[in-house]
Fold:
Amino acid sequence: MIKKLIKKPAMRLLLLLVCCFQIGSSWAEGHPTDLREDDIAHEPANLQNGIQVAMNLCTLCHDLKYVKYHDLLEIGLSAKEVDKIRGANSASDPILSKMNDKQMNALFGMTTPDLSLMAKARGDGAQYIYSLLLAYHERRDGAIVNNLYPDIKMPDVLAYSIENDERARSAIEQNARDIAAFLAWTADPKAKERRTLGVYVMLYLFVLTFMLYRLKQKTWSRLKT
Amino acid sequence: MSKVIQWIDRRFPLSSFIKHDLVEYPTPRNLSYWWNFGFLAGFVLVLQILTGIFLAMHYKPDASLAFDSVDHIMREVNYGWLIRYMHAVGASAFFAVIYIHMARTLYYGSYRAPRELMWWTGQALLLALMATAFMGYLLPWGQMSFWGAQVITSLFGATPFIGDEIVIWLRGDFAVGDATLTRFFALHYLFPFIIASIVIIHLIALHHVKSSNPSGINLTAKNNIPFHPYFTVKDLFGLGVFLIIYCYFVFFSPEFFIEAENNQPANPLQTPPHIVPEWYFLPFYAILRSVPDLLGGVIAMALSVMIFAAMPFLDRSKIPGGAKYRPIYRGMFYIFVVDVVVLTYVGAQPPTNFWTLIGQVATLIYFALFTLLPFLSKFEERWLRKQGLPAEVEELIRCEEQCGCTDPK
Structure:
């Protein structure tokens, strides 16, 4: 049976492609990245902590312009909490930085990038953001540099590089993970809906395709006689 | 109901069309699953047109609004994310299906007489598809959209004497900008309908010469079976398998085919670290980059796409049955497939010395295969005939030599 399959040109081609792909991807794996590898949890509690930190800190300098305040209801904030976050803004306003472009330019010599899609705009998005925020360290001469993005104009906003207490450091790490989880949500807010719907679609397709296969077998068996 | 059909039939050959071309249409019974991909390509075309029309209802072809309007589709339009991801994954699916369809044609020699016109309309479809995909990729107005279009349109600048004028004419401006976006949108909406009309010509030709089949020998009437129900059900089963793979990407890995960089709005002042086209252009892009001279590279790239059209002339063997009965041709086919995979990989790498060298070797192999084909195919034919072919195959070759009649009759 297997021998017969391998003899088929189709199968040979497939095998060939699989081999190529294998070789290719094992090559690609040869270059490890500097990203942190621990898992980022995407539970509601993480997202909500992420929002709080992001709202207090990141939106000082960054826009989240594709997210509106009322969108935050979708990840389980109550209307009251959203009201508190939005302050004087209307619930249907986009989340914008407190700084305008001019101030940003004066401070950093550039406008800061919008964060709404950041988790999709970099390879390994969430993992990248998480790692980036913690990649700051103090050089011997006292300068604070970022390993992942050496010339970055963003300061060490979580103050990770100057924190020496282990407990405080791990709290900052947790915050960084939660911010990353939150930004993963802002980049792809329909992910959950998509996957849920996807499961049903796939189940339906499996059943349908199986039935079509049986129908095909039955139809074609008439031919042999 | 039957009255209505009668009324129509007196004025338009509806029933006879359905009977001849959909139901009774004689089809070789030995077609393998590789013959499913033509139907799949047609299905994806319809899918792209439908999802595209719905996207166009919310999309704004304006450089200051395009990126935001795509995000609006993703977040606010009901099931906009689904339609957009279907369209984006659909583009990749289209190329995957078309490339397999072409590989099948190459393997089984289906481009040979009397199917040259099918092959050439297919070549036209490939070009139109590439143009459509290229223009569609600009529309989200992300970084890769912008810079991809910038790089590819600038290639036309290699044209001697009037290069600069052509580039400006294509872009509608000195650099890719609002004018470019608007015209790409207009053409991206138009081209699928041109594709659909070429498909109709492709199908008329098909129904005239009938399907080729794995044996390469034209079958006697008793080996043909009606299209319906045998191939309708087989195509539907194939469609099911296709949809499983397609929906896996749409629902679980929709950004797989989208460059991360493209989730950042186009910024004409900031060139991305390395600009890569979509995966389906990578082999040709690798060929472009492996020629040191720009004009030479553009010519090599254009040639690498267009050279398929020459296949009916390059393959001079009269042995029927494509690669199946032709060991040398079969070897060349597999080398070609591996070579294209290598080129795809190289096309995605930054142009370091090492990758450029690999790309150059692969490019040489690519063109060497086509250049050597006329000689190798003739040599192979002589060699096989000296070894002795089955009588009926010799008979077929003789018949073809006499009257050029690989006609079904």
Observations:
- The domain at 44-187 of chain A is CATH 1.10.760.10 (Cytochrome Bc1 Complex; Chain D, domain 2).
- The longest strand of chain A covers residues 64-68.
- Residues 191-224 of chain A form the longest helix (34 residues).
